[in-house]
Amino acid sequence: MTNEKDKLKRNLEKVAEERGNQQAVSYVDLFNPMFMQKNTNFTTIDVFVKELGLKEFQDIESVAQDVIDNFVKKETKFENWQEMQQRAVSDYMTRLF
Q1: What domain of life is recorded for the organism (predicted)?
Q2: Which of 3, 13, 46, 81 has the least C-beta neighbours within 10 A?
Q3: Structural domain tally of the chain?
């Protein structure tokens, strides 16, 4: 168990060093083209956003929850927006380690 903790700690330190002071992960990194093509009917997150009727990703916050959830359910492998976000984060973390 200690070896696993040490390995995780080294990996986290490596990621922190590589990322420097950068705290946030870009939505383009989370919803990268590979993720989008594998899990949605869209090639990129920008196409997803435009099909949702928005100009840019940040506008998603202004969309009613039921509207985005219905869109996600219809156009992706996910039941709702939260599930899609969780999978994107999980996949991103898996790629890091």
Answers
A1: Bacteria
A2: 3
A3: 1
Distance CA 6, CA 49 (A): 40
DSSP 24-82: SPPHHHHT-HHHHHHHBS-SSHHHHHHHTT-SSGGGGGGS-HHHHHHHHHHHBSSSSHH
Confidence (pTM)? 0.76
Which token pair is 50?
A: 């435009």
47: containing domain = 2-96
CB 54 within 8 A of CB 63: yes
What is the phi/psi pair of residue 76, to 5°?
-135, 180
